[in-house]
Design goal:
Number of strands: 7
Strand order of the largest sheet: 1-2-3-7-6
Number of helices: 10
CATH topology: Rossmann fold
Bound molecules: thiamine diphosphate
Structural class: alpha/beta
CATH architecture: 3-Layer(aba) Sandwich
Distance between the termini: 49 Å
Helix content: 40-55%
CATH class: Alpha Beta
Strand content: 5-15%
Length: 321
């Protein structure tokens, strides 16, 4: 990694990755206890992507998310307790408990929203990019989506327009190899989604999505380019989700050896080893961060569990028509 990061920044990145992992483990536990209405799509295993990208962003930069969005929210600075409350359908959640896991948004931190429609966030990011250009600010938008979404028409139309108008959008493909149970090789004839960038005349980069510093560096370049008004970049992060697609999907379609191989490349384990090897942090500091993050998650769960559900009378409030 050519960029040198301060200890403070490294700690912040490690903490965020742990927050996402511990948060998702807790959501899985609560789901198993039937406390989560609707479904869930967990981000565990992909933490290096959201954190590597969002660590380059300012509070006034934007992101758009997907159905697998808890990690994006947390990486962009959302409050854990309000994310948890939303997932549990409580009134204190980001959407007053009426949106749930797949519809979390917080405009105050530039989180423009998760969406259950695969590929639906991509044109929204381009719209935000156009708004930045028209307002003539130096904000940027990071747009997260899966490799499955990159086969949607929205992906192609959006990138074409963003490239043509040099909009400040960083397109971040989280390639976790499967769209539900469909392996990438069954749905597209190319290996790298980033190769599609050439069709639109923008840079396309493939990066190890389980290496947070590698993602950080590639995203840094793309953010710089976007802030300077030079236009979008397509980044493809090769990663893997630890759990099934959603709910309790046992993911039987994935070979055991493949799962083991990716678990060995766990992004948090790798970052921790690197921090220790380079003496950026010592074991006691790591343990302290882990303890603090565990306590934060417990606090978020307590807040969410103790919060009330919205009343039936509130169902039609905040509805736009
Ligand atoms: C337009 C649309 N088509 C299909 C679905 C059903 N669906 C939900 S998630 C998903 C797979 C998405 O795969 P990918 O974009 O690779 O993201 P990942 O789940 O791997 O993070 C599908 C097909 C949907 N929600 N929206």
């Amino acid at each position: 990694m050519a960029l040198s990061l301060t200890k403070e920044k490294l700690v912040e990145m490690y903490r965020k990755m742990l927050e996402i992992r511990f948060f998702e483990e807790k959501v899985f536990e609560l789901y198993a206890q039937n406390l989560v209405p609707g479904t869930i799509h967990l981000y565990a295993g992909e933490e290096a992507v959201a954190v590597g990208v969002c660590s380059n962003l300012r509070k006034d930069d934007y992101i758009t998310s997907t159905h697998r969005g808890h990690g994006h929210c947390i990486a962009k600075g959302a409050e854990l307790k309000r994310v948890m409350a939303e997932i549990l359908g409580k009134k204190t959640g980001y959407c007053k408990g009426k949106g749930g896991s797949m519809h979390i948004a917080d405009f105050s931190i530039g989180m423009l929203g998760a969406t259950a429609v695969v590929g639906g966030g991509i044109p929204i990011a381009v719209g935000a990019g156009l708004s930045i250009k028209l307002r003539d600010t130096d904000q940027v938008v990071a747009c997260f989506f899966g490799e499955g979404a990159s086969n949607q028409g929205t992906f192609h139309e959006s990138i074409n327009m963003a490239a043509l108008w040099k909009l400040p959008v960083i397109f971040v493909c989280e390639n976790n190899l499967y769209a539900m149970g469909t392996r990438q090789s069954r749905a597209m004839a190319i290996e790298n989604v980033a190769d599609r960038a050439i069709a639109y005349g923008i840079p396309g980069e493939v990066v190890d999505g389980n290496d947070v510093l590698a993602v950080y560096e590639v995203a840094w370049k793309a953010v710089e380019r976007a802030r300077k008004g030079e236009g979008p970049t397509l980044i493809e992060c090769k990663t893997y989700r630890h759990k099934g697609h959603s709910r309790i999907d046992p993911a039987k379609y994935r070979p055991k050896e493949e799962v083991e191989e990716w678990l060995a490349k766990d992004p948090i384990k790798r970052f921790k080893e690197r921090l220790l090897q380079t003496n950026a942090l010592v074991e006691a500091e790591i343990q302290q961060i882990e303890k603090e993050v565990s306590a934060e998650i417990e606090e978020a769960v307590k807040f969410a569990m103790e919060s009330p559900y919205p009343t039936p009378e509130e169902a039609l409030e905040d509805v736009y028509a």
